[in-house]
Amino acid sequence: MSPKAFSYTAGVAFTAAGAMCWSLGGALVRLTDNLDVWQIIFYRSLTVLVCMGIWLAFRFGGSLPARIRDAGLNAVIAGIAVGTAGLTFVASLFYTTVAEAIFMVGISPFLSAMLGFWILRERIPPITWVAMTIALIGMGVIFYGNRGGGAFTGTLLAIYSSFCFSCYAVLLRWGQKTDMSVALVWNAIYLIIISALVMLMPTGLRGTAGLESFAIGWWNAGAVVIMGAIQLTLGLILFTIGSRSVPAAQLSLIALVEPVLSPLWAWLVANELPPISTFAGGAVIVAAIVIQALFSAARESRNARRQRRSEPAYDRP
Prior knowledge:
Largest sheet: none
Number of strands: 0
Strand content: under 5%
Order of helices and strands: HHHHHHHHHHHHH
Oligomer: single chain
Number of helices: 13
Helix content: over 70%
Radius of gyration: 20 Å
């Protein structure tokens, strides 16, 4: 059975709300005390797995195994894609500032548009191209104001994160006839396994290895639980719901709400003060998202009116 469909406007609202949850990630990472990326990923993913297990069991009960089978391999790959996107983005924050890392997220809508056209044959309206270009300009303004302090490694990690997220957006659309929420379970399992292996085994990816790596303290535990429950679980659920009625390119465009708000939270929580260009670029990105949403909502309304006017014609003898 296909999940409930929503209007385009409702899909935009769900997607934007999910991106707002994601935007808390940078600030929450800054609140942790002496944790590395693998510890954060492990406990954040463990929280996601617990929260998603409770939520899916409440929604589907005994039919949950059937839902997982229906979603199939597509959900597994989607979970791995968004898991890798989250892992590499968190890793990039350890090499550069929040504001600099998020610039590379600006290429995500373009990647999603190309992948969506190639795989899903989703037509890309001219207004979407215009909005994506405006958004990229806004990201460029943010990057220009923060140039000079970032590391090349952080930039590469952020670019790869954008590519993985674009794959996730397209896979959500590909599997929209099934309940793609189960992808979040695979996402959590994948990251728990990867991070646990790195923490336990001497891989060279971190300074020490062993069971002592799992001791993080109560303060850090609280921060990563909030990351897993609010930033990731709630954010991914809302974004997945929105994907039912929003094309792949527009999903990634609306997701730019995350990099717009991330520096603001980092400033308020961790006193990581971004320059004025960050807020100026953010305003440009918000304008692009609003333009896209208004034009698309108006087009949907016109199509609905035309459909209603044509319906009586089919009833005539």
